[in-house]
């Protein structure tokens, strides 16, 4: 009996074969839709001092910033060939060699930076409370993010490291290894895989996209939505825990996810082994782990600063009473905003 799985052959990146419409792009739209729905639900249920127009505009500029930041970081930090650095006009050009490819390559961390910048600038111009908005948005983001990682899985990309676990999966486009290598033969023997006499072989990998969908997505969302959000004492606390929570979860999942082949380990203090596709040491750190460490540090600093600024308490902007039908009107929300002007 084989102790591994094959990538489902019926899963294809294209929704309709031959057309440049991919599941990955659709998953992004689903993610945005879920984040927007959960954001509007919080605003309507709690009478938060944002009108629907203001909320939609902030969300729009957050998405614009996200797409720009995600693409720019992916084509700079994660592209050691410097192809786009020497051709910056192609960063947002969806064609390559005359073929429509879409914008392949998006960085999560770049997306966070871009979304923050886009929403901060808008809130500064309109004199709105950015930390309040950040809390509302970050409470729902992970559930939407789940679908982004499912899109990565359908694309058969961002696979994990080689594993002998029974749920290890062979991804068709993953790097192959020489059958003559001792470690390849050892893993093949452990999982019951028959090797050819010579050449290259594709070995099972951790389905790290699914790990991320579960832990960075569903579990983090449950934690933020049902625990942190209900115990919120000051604006900025939910966003702080989002940065910390995502950073911690992603940092450890990176040990199971193969580093970008051209980048390898940014910091290497342990044995690298025969290939980065194998886990060999907790002392080797990828680019993603460095960025996650910065997220954790940033989240801790933000929480500490905001707690000190607010004295760990504030007059709640959210009014949980049901109220009458006029509670959501423009005049009511303006009154709430004026009453809470001192909250930043």
UniProtKB/TrEMBL annotation:
Its EC number is 2.5.1.145. Its main location: membrane. It comes from the Bacteria. Signal peptide: none annotated. GO terms for molecular function: phosphatidylglycerol-prolipoprotein diacylglyceryl transferase activity. PROSITE patterns: LGT (PS01311). It is found in: Cell membrane. Residues 312-344 are annotated as: Disordered. Pfam families: LGT. Pathway: Protein modification; lipoprotein biosynthesis (diacylglyceryl transfer). It is a multi-pass membrane protein. Residues 335-344 have a biased composition (Basic residues). GO terms for biological process: lipoprotein biosynthetic process. GO terms for cellular component: plasma membrane. It is an enzyme of class 2 (transferase). Keywords: Cell membrane, Membrane, Transferase, Transmembrane, Transmembrane helix. The chain crosses the membrane at residues 20-38, 58-78, 106-123, 234-253, 282-305. InterPro entries: Lgt. A 1,2-diacyl-sn-glycero-3-phospho-(1'-sn-glycerol) binds at residue 149. Belongs to the Lgt family. NCBIfam families: lgt. Catalyzes the transfer of the diacylglyceryl group from phosphatidylglycerol to the sulfhydryl group of the N-terminal cysteine of a prolipoprotein, the first step in the formation of mature lipoproteins. HAMAP family: Lgt. This is Phosphatidylglycerol--prolipoprotein diacylglyceryl transferase.
